[in-house]
Structure formats: C-alpha cells, structure tokens
C-alpha cells in the first residue's frame, strides 16, 4: 500500500505530543524511577540549608571537592563552593576551560512562613501559646491555615552553640497549626473581605501549646510551659529566638497524584524541581568541552537580594576563584571576556495550564503538563517589564541542541498579556553580557503549599540541563 502523502498542513505545522505517548517504555520506566528519587529529595529538604547539606553530601561521594582544599584546577576536575550554607556552586572544568562557561542557575528557597525574632506569646483568654510570624515570598495566606505544619531551622544560643531544629515531619512528631475561623462565625469577620485578604499577615499565628505549668507564681503559665519544654529539649531560652533562622513549612510528604501516578504533589517544587534536576545533571557531567557550573541560590522569592541571592557577587566570586586556579595571572579583561562568552539557563518553573482556571492562559502559548520542559523566551510583566529576553539566535541554538539530542521541550509564556506575570534571576546574569534563557517544568498550583508537576516534565528538565552542561 502506498504511503499517504503528507499534507501541507502536516508538513508545515508545529507538532507537539505528550511525552507519555512519545517516549519508549524503558524511558518511561527511567522517568518514573527518577521521579521517585525526586520525591525522596523533596521529603528530605524543605529549607535552603537542608538543600545545600544534601547536595554537598551526595556531590562529595561523586568526586566533587571543596575548592578551598585544592591548589589548582585542570580539565575534568570537579569542585564546589558554598556560601553561608544557603548558596552553592558545583562545577566541572572543561577541555576549553577559559572559553566561556555553561551555567544552569536555579534557586532553592520557596514561599513559606518565617518566625519573628520575638515570637512567643500567650493569649490568656484562649489559654493558648502562639508564635508570631512573617510570611516569606508570594503566598496566598489563606492556603496556610488549618493544615499540619512543621518547623525547620537553626537557633544559636547566647553562648554561640548551634541547635538544629526539625519537628513536625516524622511519625509521632507533634505538628503545628494556624487556626482558621469556623464558618458559623466568619460571616462578618472574614466574609466581607476580599479573597487575598481572607487571612491577614498578622493573623498567621502558629498554635504551639495549651498545657499550663503547675506553678502558682507564674503568670503566663502556658507560655512558660512551652519555654520549659524548649529549654529541656533543645537548651534554648526565649532570647535565643533573636538569633534563629526558623521556617514554617507544610508537614505533608510528597505523594503521587492521580490514579495513574503520573504527577508529583509536594511543597517547594518552585524551584527545587529545577534545583534537583540540574543537580543530578551536573553530577553526571564528565569531561565537558566548556567548564560547566550549576548554581543554587537563595532569596529569589523576595527579589534575590542579600549576600546569598543572585544579586550578590557570588557569581563573580566563583568565576574569579576558578580562573585564579586555572590561570593565576589572568587579567581583568580576560575575566570580563569569559563572563561575556558564557551561556546560561535560568532554571525556573513556568505555569502549566490549570484546567479550572484556563482563562488566565493564552492556550497556544501556554505550557501543558507532560509535554516537556518549558522554554520561555522572556518572562516579566506589564510589557515584559523585569524580563531578560533571549535573542532569536540563542533560542535557535537551544532548539538545535535539543532537537539533535531528542530532548522534548515546549515554548510557552507564563500567562496572558496583562494578566499578571513574574520574573526570574535571568536578568542578573544577562547583565554580564552572556546569553540567558529561562527554562523549567510547568507547575500547577505554583506557590501553594502543595504544588503539582508531571513526572515527564521532571525527566525532561533533567535531560535538558544535562545536555546543556555536557557540551
């Protein structure tokens, strides 16, 4: 039988299919196993410090060494540089080490709720002890009430002793709750508010105790009972909250979503999905042509400021450190030249189509779950404001790279024009003159305490980052 002639529409139109239909059975099996590893990672790490600790522990087993313990660097060498336990760079020296680097840059912070410096108080009318909080990043505050929460972080005592705290995740642990108001009494207090104002910032207070201490001389009995517990358990007192990084995160574990188990549901997938996939990618890079570095930053959700954010000089510090160990007599002009010749992926998530709220998407330019990693030529809002737009030339280069290596991908925007928008850390790298493009899996329910991603998109992101870093 003669083969059906391809129509002009079939010949010229773009063809994108679900990876569930295009991948071979072995690839799907590999992707599902990769997703299981990813869920274990999300279960283990819920803060920046925990992420960095996890990554260094595994990277050292794969041959990466602290750069401070090396005297020089040569092609094939693997190194890492840590910044204040909250930012990390993992690199592999290339065969052409000084002809521009290949970077994949993600962030490891996630929207959450932080504990205030003087948080603990007692409400005598309710006989409850609570912790005051200050939310971090762009959250919908009403999503965080009446759900089990955990506390993760570090406390430094007055004498400088470090105390690591992680409570609420393990079976048998107590959990903590920000109580919502019952609907029977909420008609006026909450019912007349707008949705985003249904729970206000100062109303995000965590219930941490109810038992009063049995001492007639104590006025704040429930608060004192909590302080007594904290002192006996951790050796801290109330003043030690002043020198603490304590984060409130969901206590739920990552789970498969759907009868078909095709998706991952978990907290912190923005942007630890990109962090994990690029981390796994850099671990597997061997003898690349160009020096490859995976960066993992903090503070993206609040503007990338501070000494651990992408606006710090950590990138310059890493470049200078690496260059000095390859060519000790490098000039400033050579330093700038290498920055200029480098190419980067800003590894951050996009918004996959939410079938319940499709009106916010321009469907032909929206990401579909399971169709591969999302490449965004630009992000930003209000006329691309705050965006770093990739050039047509760099987009063509990326497309050719992935077509050659059979990496499934899709090109999409975050949402409709003037619907809203968002930014990434791409612009902070583009300022050095390097080519940068945004790329990451699509997420449903982004910034919520329980985000959803397709396992195919997790796999696609890993492959995309690995191919880019392995050049």
Automatic annotation (TrEMBL):
<keyword id="KW-0378">Hydrolase</keyword>
<dbReference type="GO" id="GO:0006508">
    <property type="term" value="P:proteolysis"/>
</dbReference>
<dbReference type="Pfam" id="PF02127">
    <property type="entry name" value="Peptidase_M18"/>
</dbReference>
<dbReference type="GO" id="GO:0004177">
    <property type="term" value="F:aminopeptidase activity"/>
</dbReference>
<keyword id="KW-0645">Protease</keyword>
<dbReference type="GO" id="GO:0008237">
    <property type="term" value="F:metallopeptidase activity"/>
</dbReference>
<protein>
    <submittedName>
        <fullName>Peptidase M18 aminopeptidase I</fullName>
    </submittedName>
</protein>
<keyword id="KW-0862">Zinc</keyword>
<dbReference type="GO" id="GO:0005737">
    <property type="term" value="C:cytoplasm"/>
</dbReference>
<dbReference type="InterPro" id="IPR001948">
    <property type="entry name" value="Peptidase_M18"/>
</dbReference>
<keyword id="KW-0031">Aminopeptidase</keyword>
<comment type="similarity">
    <text>Belongs to the peptidase M18 family.</text>
</comment>
<keyword id="KW-0482">Metalloprotease</keyword>
<dbReference type="InterPro" id="IPR023358">
    <property type="entry name" value="Peptidase_M18_dom2"/>
</dbReference>
<keyword id="KW-0479">Metal-binding</keyword>
<dbReference type="GO" id="GO:0008270">
    <property type="term" value="F:zinc ion binding"/>
</dbReference>
């Amino acid at each position: 039988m003669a083969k059906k002639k391809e129509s002009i529409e079939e010949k010229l139109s773009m063809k994108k299919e679900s990876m569930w239909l295009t991948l071979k059975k072995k690839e799907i099996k590999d992707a599902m196993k990769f997703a299981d590893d990813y869920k274990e990672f999300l279960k283990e790490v819920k803060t920046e410090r925990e992420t960095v600790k996890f990554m260094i522990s595994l990277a050292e087993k794969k041959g990466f060494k602290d750069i401070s313990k090396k005297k020089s660097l040569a092609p094939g060498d693997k190194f890492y540089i840590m910044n204040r336990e909250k930012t990390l760079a993992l690199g592999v020296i290339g065969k052409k080490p000084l002809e521009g680097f290949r970077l994949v840059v993600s962030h490891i912070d996630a929207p959450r709720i932080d504990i205030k410096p003087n948080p603990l108080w007692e409400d005598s009318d309710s006989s409850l002890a609570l912790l005051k909080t200050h939310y971090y990043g762009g959250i919908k505050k009403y999503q965080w009430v009446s759900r089990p929460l955990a506390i993760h972080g570090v406390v430094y005592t007055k004498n400088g002793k470090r105390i690591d705290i992680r409570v609420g995740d393990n079976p048998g642990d107590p959990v903590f709750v920000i109580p919502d108001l019952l609907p029977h009494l909420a008609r006026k207090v909450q019912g007349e508010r707008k949705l985003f104002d249904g729970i206000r910032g100062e109303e995000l207070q965590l219930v941490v105790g109810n038992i009063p201490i049995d001492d007639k001389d104590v006025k704040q009995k429930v608060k004192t009972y909590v302080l007594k517990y904290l002192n006996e358990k951790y050796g801290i007192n109330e003043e030690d909250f002043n020198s603490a990084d304590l984060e409130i995160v969901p206590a739920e574990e990552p789970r498969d979503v759907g009868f078909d188990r095709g998706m991952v549901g978990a907290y912190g997938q923005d942007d630890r999905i990109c962090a994990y996939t690029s981390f796994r990618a850099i671990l597997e890079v061997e003898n690349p042509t160009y020096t490859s570095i995976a960066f993992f930053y903090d503070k993206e959700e609040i503007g990338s400021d501070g000494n651990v954010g992408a606006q710090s000089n950590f990138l310059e510090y890493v470049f200078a450190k690496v260059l000095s160990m390859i060519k000790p007599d490098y000039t400033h002009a050579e330093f700038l030249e290498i920055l200029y010749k480098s190419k980067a992926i800003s590894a951050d998530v996009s918004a996959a189509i939410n079938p319940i709220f499709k009106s916010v998407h321009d469907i032909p330019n929206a990401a579909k779950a399971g169709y591969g990693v999302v490449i965004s030529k630009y992000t930003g809002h209000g006329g691309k404001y705050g965006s770093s737009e990739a050039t047509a030339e760099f987009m063509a280069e990326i497309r050719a790279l992935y077509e050659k290596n059979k990496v499934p991908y899709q090109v999409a925007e975050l949402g409709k024009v003037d619907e809203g928008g968002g930014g990434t850390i791409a612009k902070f790298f583009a300022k050095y003159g390097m080519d940068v493009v945004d790329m990451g899996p699509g997420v449903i329910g982004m910034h919520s305490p329980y985000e959803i991603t397709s396992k195919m998109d997790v796999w696609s992101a890993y492959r995309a980052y690995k191919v880019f870093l392995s050049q």
